[in-house]
Amino acid sequence: MTIEESDVRLAERLAREAGEILLALQNQGDLSGKELGQAGDARANELLMRELKIARPEDAILCEEEKDSDARLSASRVWIVDPLDGTREYSEGRSDWAVHVALSIGGIATVGAVALPALDLTLTSAGPPKLKALNTPLKMLVSRTRPAAEAVAVAKILGADLLPMGSAGAKAMAVVRGEADVYLHTGGQYEWDNCAPVAVAEAAGLYCARIDGSPMRYNAPDGYLPDLVICHPELEDAVKAAIAAL
C-alpha cells in the first residue's frame, strides 16, 4: 500500500466514524436546534483531532473547530477538516450535511473523503463514481438559504434549473453523483468547506476552479476561499463563458 492509499483509507475511516457519531447523537433525541449542532460539531471534532494526531503526528491540521496556527504554513502535508459541514441542515434533521476530511500536499487537494451520513454514503478521491450523462434540462446547485446572484444568472444563461441544497459537501457530491451538473459558489467559503469535496470531484474528472479560472490552492495564510465552480467537464467552456458574460 502506498502512502497516498493509506491516507485515503484513513480519511475515509475518519469521515465515516465522525458521521456515525453525528447520526447517533441526532437519533438520541436529547438535543435539538443549535444545541444539537454545537454538540455534533464538538464530538465529531474530538474524534477527528484525536485520531489524526495518533495516525499522522508529523502532519499539520487546519480545522474549522480548532485554533489556527502559522506553523502549518511551513508544512507540506496539511489535513484540512470540517467535522460538520451544514450544521443548520444537521440540526433540522435534513440529509444534506457532510463530514469533510482532506489532505493537502504542497497546496493541492490530494486526498479527500466526504461522508454523507444521512445517505449512508462516503465518497473518496480513490474511488469516485463514474461520471453520468448531463441532466436534461441542466441542473445547477445553489444555497437553499442564500442563492448567489451570480449562480442564478449563470443558470439562466445555461438554461439550467436551480436545485437548492444545504452543505457545500452535499452540493459538490451531488455533481459527482450526477444529480446535478454545476455547482457555482460566490458567497464566501473557507478551505475546510471545499478541500475534501474538490479532491473527490477532481478525482471523478470534474472541472474545479476559482470562478476566474485559477486553480484551487490550499494551506494559505488566510484560509478564506470566497468562490469556486465545480461542473461536468462537458460544461467547462459554457460555464466559463457564462461567468465571463456577467
UniProtKB/TrEMBL annotation:
<protein>
    <recommendedName>
        <fullName>3'(2'),5-bisphosphonucleoside 3'(2')-phosphohydrolase</fullName>
    </recommendedName>
</protein>
<dbReference type="GO" id="GO:0008441">
    <property type="term" value="F:3'(2'),5'-bisphosphate nucleotidase activity"/>
</dbReference>
<keyword id="KW-0460">Magnesium</keyword>
<dbReference type="Pfam" id="PF00459">
    <property type="entry name" value="Inositol_P"/>
</dbReference>
<keyword id="KW-0378">Hydrolase</keyword>
<dbReference type="InterPro" id="IPR020583">
    <property type="entry name" value="Inositol_monoP_metal-BS"/>
</dbReference>
<dbReference type="InterPro" id="IPR000760">
    <property type="entry name" value="Inositol_monophosphatase-like"/>
</dbReference>
<dbReference type="InterPro" id="IPR050725">
    <property type="entry name" value="CysQ/Inositol_MonoPase"/>
</dbReference>
<keyword id="KW-0479">Metal-binding</keyword>
